[in-house]
Amino acid sequence: MLKQADATWVHAIAAGTGATRRQLPHWIDHLPPCNAACPAGENIQAWLEHARAGQWQQAWKQILDDNPFPAVHGRACYHPCQSKCNRGELDSAVGIHAVERLVGDVARKEKWQPSCGEPTGRRVLIVGAGPAGLSCAYHLARLGHAVEVREATEEPRPGVAFSSSAPVPLASHAPTTWLDSATPLRFAKRPKNPAA
């Protein structure tokens, strides 16, 4: 947006050239407010554009760059992005969380699998199979690292934390179905401390 201070005229009579601009307007590229409000830091306008064009797999891949659980996030997130949506000033905000949930559901139905990087030979241990631990493990596996996730619960499996702390709509589904099975993660129960 061009502000009045950016369009100031300077009279250059001494130089004999007439009125000239002291400052020139220039375009500053800013992220939309929905991106700034997203707790997962997703590139919302990019994957929404893919979804609008019916390119569901490209939208899913774009979401996976930032968030490995689009179907979960589309159900459990309190969607502060929608309250910051510019479209809300015109008529109503875009249903971002509903579209994200749809993208995740289409990916599950079509059984799309994420790609993993070339094996690096490095091994990483993640303690805890909650949302943060699984997200960390997911992104490390995509980089090609061998990842093992350890959990202290009786049944070491992904999604335990999701099902125990999620809202009702999410708890009615099996959270493990939202985890991408092609990502090479190993889950193991944390060994009990023999000194305890």
Write up what this structure looks like.
The protein has 196 residues and is α/β, with parallel strands linked by helices. It has two domains: 33-110, Alpha-helical ferredoxin (Fumarate Reductase Iron-sulfur Protein, Chain B, domain 2); 123-189, FAD/NAD(P)-binding domain. Helices cover 36% and strands 12% of the residues. It has nine helices and five strands; from the N terminus they run ββααααααβαβααβ. The strands form two sheets. A three-stranded parallel β-sheet has the order 3-4-5, with helices on one face. A two-stranded antiparallel sheet has the order 1-2. The longest helix has 15 residues, at 96-110. The relative contact order is 0.12. The model is unreliable at 1-12 and 171-175 (pLDDT under 50).
Q: What does this entry show, briefly?
A:
This protein is of the alpha/beta class and 196 residues long. It has two domains: 78 residues, Orthogonal Bundle (Fumarate Reductase Iron-sulfur Protein, Chain B, domain 2), CATH 1.10.1060.10; 67 residues, FAD/NAD(P)-binding domain (3-Layer(bba) Sandwich).
